[in-house]
Design a protein that fits this description.
Blueprint: H1 8-16, H2 18-28, E1 31-35, H3 44-49, H4 51-61, E2 69-73, H5 81-96, H6 103-110, H7 114-123
Antiparallel strand pairs: 1-2
């Protein structure tokens, strides 16, 4: 199950579980964080995943058992880049089939820019229903 987690998140998931690894990614994804040799009760890691799990991670990442270590936590968006892009394109395709939606509305609902919708439409021209709002030029 942890094959889908990137980098150090898979290592964290093996130690304290996938749910806790995802919580850490949600809190600190895309940043470099410090794992002390032992976290205080007010440390972000303790409030994020609990004392027991924080102790497990801190002892795992401790250098010589005495010093903490900085670790780059990767972003986690629920899958690989390809899976995320495929889901976005499927959503745009579904929304684009509705003739009543403008490109701005599709962009808002799909969570992308309006330009992305225009690029998507240009790439898939002829594969979707023609735009009946515009007449033929030639």
């Amino acid at each position: 199950m942890t094959e889908k987690l990137p980098g150090v998140l898979a290592e964290i998931a093996d130690l304290v579980g996938e749910a806790n690894a995802i919580l850490i990614a949600a809190h600190a994804g895309g940043t470099r964080v410090y794992f002390p040799a032992r976290a205080d009760d007010n440390h972000w890691l303790v409030s994020c995943i609990g004392r027991h799990n924080a102790d497990i991670l801190c002892s795992h990442f401790a250098v010589d058992g005495r010093r903490g270590q900085r670790v780059d936590i990767p972003l986690y968006v629920g899958g690989t880049y390809r899976q995320v892009m495929r889901a976005i394109h499927e959503r745009m395709h579904k929304l684009d089939r509705d003739d009543n939606l403008s490109s701005a509305e599709i962009a808002r609902q799909a969570g992308v820019t309006q330009r992305s919708v225009h690029r998507y439409r240009a790439r898939h021209r002829g594969q979707t229903k023609p735009n009946r709002k515009q007449g033929k030029l030639l």
